[in-house]
Automatic annotation (TrEMBL):
Segment forming the signal sequence: none
EC nos: 2.7.1.107
Native source species: Dendrobium thyrsiflorum
Domain of life the protein comes from: Eukaryota
The protein's name: Diacylglycerol kinase
Keyword hit for Transferase: yes
Reactions this protein catalyses: a 1,2-diacyl-sn-glycerol + ATP = a 1,2-diacyl-sn-glycero-3-phosphate + ADP + H(+)
Biased composition annotated in UniProt, kind: Acidic residues: 451-469
InterPro entries: ATP-NAD_kinase_N, DGK, Diacylglycerol_kin_accessory, Diacylglycerol_kinase_cat_dom, Diacylglycerol_kinase_pln, NAD/diacylglycerol_kinase_sf
Region (Disordered): 440-487
Subunit-structure text: Monomer.
Biological process terms in GO annotation: defense response; phospholipase C-activating G protein-coupled receptor signaling pathway
Protein purpose: Phosphorylates the second messenger diacylglycerol (DAG) to generate phosphatidic acid (PA), another important signaling molecule. PA is required for plant development and responses to abiotic stress and pathogen attack.
Amino acid sequence: MGDYISEANHLRKEFYIPNYILEYDSEVEQPLYIPICPVIVFINSRSGGQLGSDLIMTYRTLLNKNQVFDLGEEAPDKVLHRVYGNLERLKFNGDTNAAEIQNRLRLIVAGGDGTASWLLGVVSDLKLANPPPIATVPLGTGNNLPFSFGWGKKNPGTDRDAVNSFLDQVMTAKEMKIDSWHVVMRMPTPKSGSCDPIPLDLPHSLHSFQRVAETDLLNMEGYQTFRGGFWNYFSMGMDAQVSYAFHSERKMHPEKFKNQLANQATYAKLGCTQGWFFASLVHPHSRNIAQLAEVKVMRRSGHWEKLHISSSIRSIICLNLPSFSGGLNPWGTPNKRKKQDRDLTAPYVDDGLFEIVGFRNAWHGLVLLAPKGHGTRLAQTNRVRFKFHKSVVDHTYMRMDGEPWKQPLSEDGDKVIVEISHLGQVKMLATQNCNAKSIHDPTAHLSTSNYDDDDEVESSSDESDDDDPEERRKFGAANTFKLPEDL
């Protein structure tokens, strides 16, 4: 007991979690002080060059070192499974302090957008009655998730003052719910070789399911099914291709990617070398979205409509948060006439809808730097399906919450299908500088702009769909982590 008090006195006791809460076999303590804002900290030591490792050292000097985890050494699902299992055991034994700590618990994750999405997926799969809200430390190249909720997009300081300042913001931050989006991808299993999952460099939040329910319409013999999800965006086309080139280069030469400004300069350079700025000249027409896939959206329950996409669109984005490519908002704010004529709304993060935006090239994207700039608004929906054609190209590029991959396409006409639908909501922590808007915040409905645009959307009624909604509720970012049955 004396050791605990001595240690807590020179640490940030408002955030301190004692060992017996974190570890099953630790001696039960009765702390004299219940932390106001107990936190569990996850840091990707490989993010931000050396910054991740430096942050770990600083957090461990300010908090209990056992409440700060290096994601390079231990996955968040194992940590949270252990901690929440222990909390339930302590509560069952009548520990009121454990119950209060669980009720106040907040999570901090430091890393790129992919790292933050990984933790969000794990929290979703825990199926907790009262899941903890999450604060994100920007420690990547884009940092769209932290920027959306007011945590900035520049890599943070790693000294004690900087970390103390961040912890104080976490204590006063408000909770905000955001929609989560379920992704199902079906592709043909290779007709020769191993029957193991196709060896793709997939993001953390997209995993193979060897067995899925027979009632799932996307489950077919001879196909491999992947399930996962995202919170910020899913994109396809040229922007994902540039991102894939950047990540591939960083994997081969990690020593060259330790500075955020240098990383962003390299990203811009790759945009030029990949032809993103001169797509009409060097980008094959066969890679345009309309040539690659048929796109359908669900306007109302059970009714699909084909979405017309201009032949000039080379990149398409399904966007949930108002931040893409380092803080840009491709949707903007439609004016009142557009809202009425095309049934458009502002991009709220908890309205059960995501925005579909198209881009012709990087020059088109640069219009976002203008005060009222936006991409080509295509649709707002809660469900979309991409069905890829038999194409002259054997692959395309996709990206989900900052993590890109090279997606094989079938050469013999077997369809690759990607379907996105609403899953649920998770809780984030937001500062006063938050850019994300909630549909439940009355002030969010007051800001509209009076500009016009020339976007046109054509749609045609097509087919109905009657698949089982329960089948789409499987998230798949990890196995569902349940509390022990004896609890």
